[in-house]
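can u do me a favor
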């Protein structure tokens, strides 16, 4: 199978990847080159069904407003999209936005010629692993579930212990007879269980908080959502046995030496 993708950048005239292409040609990836502005304006650029991989090159001259809403919209509509970031200059100002985008690989621009092919290999490997789910979805699981913020089994009044609630951006909720266990087995990897009653779409992960109980002798953990349409004070509990799921997900995304210092500052917060 050949996967389709785009190299997106602020300017195709100065982008490192545009200058290297097609020297990093991959036999299973067909890439086109476009600026963020041109891609956003082009109707075909929003045809998510034809895009499998995005190579997004960011520099200090590229404001987050030019690429963040675009990528966020793409991954919400196509949960299997694989994104490779190529970064030049100081990335500190972009770190909060990067925290919202699940990516397959992150490369300093100075090493793009050496590592970009490896990034494409990794993206293709991930796409191959989920291809059976993408093209042969089991009956009864709605594709709309992929855009959910979280699933929960709380407040199943009159429904016994069956099924769960599906919570979408903006607060819309619906009930499904599918259990959390059955739904989770068919969702992409950005959905993880964080509590016995909650499965979270990590695309909406904002911060992990710890709050003292009224007794003051222990603390409970929560996740604050981001870009979900839910109020800022809306929190989802984290179960002690599921805490490792969040850590493993984040470490898989941010296990890069030049992000080590920033990682600890961004992903957790203590609140008394």
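np, heres the sequence
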């Amino acid at each position: 199978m050949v996967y389709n993708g785009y190299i997106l950048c602020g300017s195709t005239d100065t982008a490192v990847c545009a200058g290297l292409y097609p020297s990093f040609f991959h036999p299973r990836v067909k890439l086109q080159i476009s600026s963020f502005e041109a891609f956003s304006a082009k109707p075909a650029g929003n045809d998510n069904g034809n895009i499998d991989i995005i190579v997004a090159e960011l520099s200090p001259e590229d404001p987050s407003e030019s690429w963040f809403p675009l990528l966020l919209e793409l991954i919400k509509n196509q949960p299997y999209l694989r994104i490779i970031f190529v970064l030049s200059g100081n990335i500190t100002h972009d770190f909060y936005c990067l925290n919202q985008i699940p990516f397959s690989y992150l490369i300093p621009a100075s090493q793009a010629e050496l590592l970009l092919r490896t990034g494409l290999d990794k993206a293709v490997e991930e796409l191959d692993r989920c291809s059976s789910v993408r093209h042969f979805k089991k009956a009864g699981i709605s594709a709309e579930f992929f855009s959910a913020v979280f699933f929960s089994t709380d407040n199943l009044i009159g429904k016994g212990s069956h099924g769960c609630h599906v919570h979408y951006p903006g607060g819309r909720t619906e009930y499904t007879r599918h259990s959390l266990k059955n739904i989770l087995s068919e969702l992409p990897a950005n959905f993880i269980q964080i509590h016995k009653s909650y499965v979270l779409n990590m695309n909406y992960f904002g911060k992990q908080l710890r709050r003292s109980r009224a007794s003051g002798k222990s603390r409970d953990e929560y996740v604050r959502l981001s870009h979900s349409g839910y109020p800022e004070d809306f929190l989802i509990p984290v179960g002690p046995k599921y805490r490792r799921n969040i850590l493993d997900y984040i470490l898989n995304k941010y296990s890069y030496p030049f992000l080590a210092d920033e990682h600890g500052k961004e992903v957790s917060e203590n609140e008394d």
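Residues 135-139, 255-270 have pLDDT under 50 and may be disordered. hope that helps!!
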